Each structure stands twice: as C-alpha cells, then as structure tokens.
Amino acid sequence: MDNRVKELRKERRLKQEELAAKINVSQQTISRIENGENSLPADILIQLSRFFHVSIDYILKMSDKRLTEEYWIEFQQFTENHIDICRMYSALNKRKQNLIHGLLKEMYEDEKA
C-alpha cells in the first residue's frame, strides 16, 4: 500500500467516514489525503499521529519507525507494570491466587455496572 494514512486506517478496519469523524474532518478530506490530492496540513498530521500512535515521520514516509517516543515509553511502563503483577501473582500459592482472581472478578463486574 502506497499511502500510510490509508494503510493505518485499513489496519484499524475503519471506513474513511469513521476516521474523519474521529479526527474531526470531512470524509472528502481523508479521501483526498489518501489519493495524494491534498498535502497534509500540520494540524491534521498531528491529529493522525496522535490517533494512530505513530510518528509524524512515519506518516510522511521519512521513517519506518512507527511508534512515537511518548507512546513507546508509555507502552514500556504499561508492560513492565503488568509483568510485575504477573510475577507476584505467580509467586502466590493456589489459594491466594484464587482469592486474588475472585477479588479482581468482583471489582471488574462492579466497574461494568
């Protein structure tokens, strides 16, 4: 696929109209960008970068590095926290694991309600 905006949109299984609504532009604007008819204004470029969590350089094909540095840092922190939780949970005996599981399930159900 030649156009990174189109590629990213299709990866998310979004229609042009859906992407347009998410970044507050018209479907025609998305279509023109994807067809190379419009250059990318800075404000739309920033919105696309934030929405897709990719670098502006990636959208402009100046780099093949997808993730923004901020998102990568956030992702690493998120992953490290979850690994720590999994390690602690795994170190518990079965009875305590069942208690934790029950408590999490109860809290989750409570949040959904």
From TrEMBL:
It comes from the Bacteria. GO terms for molecular function: DNA binding. InterPro entries: Cro/C1-type_HTH, Lambda_DNA-bd_dom_sf. SUPFAM superfamilies: lambda repressor-like DNA-binding domains. Keywords: DNA-binding. Residues 5-59 form the HTH cro/C1-type domain. This is Helix-turn-helix transcriptional regulator.
